[in-house]
Amino acid sequence: MKSILITFLILFTFNLSAQQIKEIRIDNNPKLTNVEADFLNNYLAHLNLNYDFTEKKVIFVKGNSGNIISDKTSFFNSVKEYKDQPVSVRILKLTEEEKLKSGDYDIIIGFWVKRITENRKRKIIEEISNEK
Q: Which residue in 8, 72, 74, 97 is a FRET match for 81, CA 20 to 30 A apart?
């Protein structure tokens, strides 16, 4: 019974997400719009993050270890392209110190990433801070 409920919730979430993805008008501003934040809150609900993406500034990375700095356009286009299955996502929340170093980014979203180590996380923050 529990597995049926979980399956239903996941399918419901992806169906809701498919509807929302159509409403997104993508720009490459790292700060999420309300529509983008709502989409991510629903799309990633199965991860049980207890995190609200509203008004958040996001670093997007991709590649096996998060070695490629990406952007919102690539992420949302990937989600649209694979609409029938979820995109593999890794979430890394930044500490207050990391936020300051990075230029006020709140979180890293890795997509199509197998693993992001703490060392790679530091390098991502360093790369972003050098872009300022």
A: 8
3-class secondary structure, 69: strand
Distance CA 105, CA 14 (A): 27
Confidence (pTM): 0.81
Q: How far, in Å, CA of 72 to CA of 75, rounded? A: 5
Looking at the predicted structure, is the pLDDT value of residue 88 above 60? yes
89: left (phi over 0), alpha (psi -120 to 50) or beta: beta
Percentage of the chain lying above the pLDDT 70 cut: 80
**3-state helix vs strand vs coil in the chain, percent to 5:** 50, 15, 35
Residues 12-57: tens digit of each pLDDT: 444 445 556 666 767 789 999 998 999 999 999 888 888 999 999 9
Q: For the chain, what is the domain count?
A: 1
What one-character-per-residue DSSP string does 1-62 give?
-HHHHHHHHHHHHHHHHHHHHTT------SBPPHHHHHHHHHHTGGG------TT-BEEEEE
